[in-house]
Amino acid sequence: MRGGLQRLWRREASLDLKGKLVVQAGALIQLGNAAAVGTGEEPYRRFVRGAGSPKLRLKVSFVRLDVIIRVAFSLLMLVLVVLLVSWLALRGIGAAGVHALGSWHDSARYALVVMFMFTATAHFNKMKHDLAQMIPAYLPRPLLIVYITGILELLGAAGLMLPHVMTLAGICLIALLVGMFIANINAAQKGVTLRSKPPTPLWLRAPMQVLFIGLLWWSTRP
Q1: C-beta separation of 156 from 120 below 8 A
Q2: How distant, in Å, are the alpha carbons of 66, 68, 89 from that of 73?
Q3: Distance of CA 82 to the CA centre of its chain
Q4: Does 84 lie in the same domain as 27?
Q5: 198 φ/ψ angles, rounded to the nearest 5 degrees
Q6: Which domain holds residue 57?
Q7: Which of 66, 80, 114, 142 is the most exposed place for a label (fewest CB within 10 A)?
C-alpha cells in the first residue's frame, strides 16, 4: 500500500513555475494518517478534492528527497558531523587560551579522539549485531571481532592524547580503518543494513575514509 500511496502523492502534486513541488500540507497529514491506520487511498482522494485553500500549500524542494534523507542520517554522515563539530569547538577552546588546543593541528587530533570514542560505542550497543554481519564469512567469531575492534578504537583514541605514542597510535588506527573498510565492502556486497537502513554507498564512504586517514596522518606528525 505504501508504494501505491507514494505514486498517488506524486500524481496529485503539481510543479509551479519556480520548479518547486507544491503540495497540500493537510493532504500530506491525511496521507500519513491513511497509511498508519490502513484506510487506503480513497480518504486521501476525498481530502485532496476538498483541500484547495492556498493557505495549505507548502513548497518543498524536489531533489531526490528520499536519497538525501537516507544519506544525511546514515551513521557515517553522523560520524563526520561529530568530527567536524568537535574540531571547530576544540579549536575555539584553544583560541580562548587552552594551549593543548592552540592550533588546528592539535585540535584535529583531539577531535579524532572524540570521533573514535563515539564510533567505538557502536561496538558495544545494539548495533554490534549489525556490525558482526559485516565481517567476512571466512573470519571466525564475528561478534568477538566487533568487540576487539571497539576496544582497539578506544585504545587508539587514548594513544592520540599521549605525545610519546601518538604517532604509533595514528598508524595503528589507520591500519584499523583500512581493515574496517574491507568489512564495509563486504557489507555492501551482502546488502547488510545498519539500524534497518542501507549501508553508506562505497562511492561516499571511500573518500571519507581517505579524509579520516589523512587527518590521522597529519595530526599525529610531531
Answers
A1: no
A2: 11, 9, 22
A3: 10
A4: no
A5: -60, 150
A6: 2-62
A7: 66
